[in-house]
Amino acid sequence: MEEKLRYQNYEFSRSYFLAMIEKLDERMMDIQPKGFNNNIRWHIGHVLTISESFIFGDLQNLPANYKELFYTGTKPDDWNRDVTSLQLLIKQLKEQIDRINRIPEEQLQNPQDTYKAFGMKTIGELITFTFAHEVFHLGQIHAMKLLLQRSTQ
Q: What is the domain range of residue 38?
């Protein structure tokens, strides 16, 4: 039962995340408001990349350059080429949640030894962490969107 709730929470969070970013104006994606370290495109790519890395242990389902674009410690100021479109990021986020939902419940209690931060011991705990991580970045995106909308009025 607990595992079903974990999937439901993640599905709800991702659905809300997708609903918000699907309404974004592509022109807002690369503006970095004063006081913020990154832009909206970075936050979306970061959520995708960190979730992939934590839950699946690697980035084999994503383009090779995502680690240098979106991983912890990266920033848009270092980008020296065109980055992924909003539409592709949305598509990849949808594909990712499908892959997460296909992880058998019995595997969620399997030990993991890739990420020891915050005392996470199982794949299920990593999923819970990435759910919380996604919600944090959703808040950042929401704040940035509001600031950008107000600055264009």
A: 2-151
pLDDT digit string (tens) for 10-19?
888 899 999 9
| Phi-psi domain of 35 (left: phi exceeds 0; alpha: psi -120 through 50; beta: other) | left
The number of folded domains in the chain is 1
Residue 111: strand, helix, or coil? strand
Strand partners, 122: 111
**Chain centroid to CA 58:** 14
What percent of the residues of the chain are helix, what percent strand, and what percent coil, each to the nearest 5? 65, 0, 30
The encoded tokens of residue 134 equal: 């996604």
CATH value at residue 131: 1.20.120.450
| pTM assigned to the model | 0.92
Eight-class DSSP state of 3: H
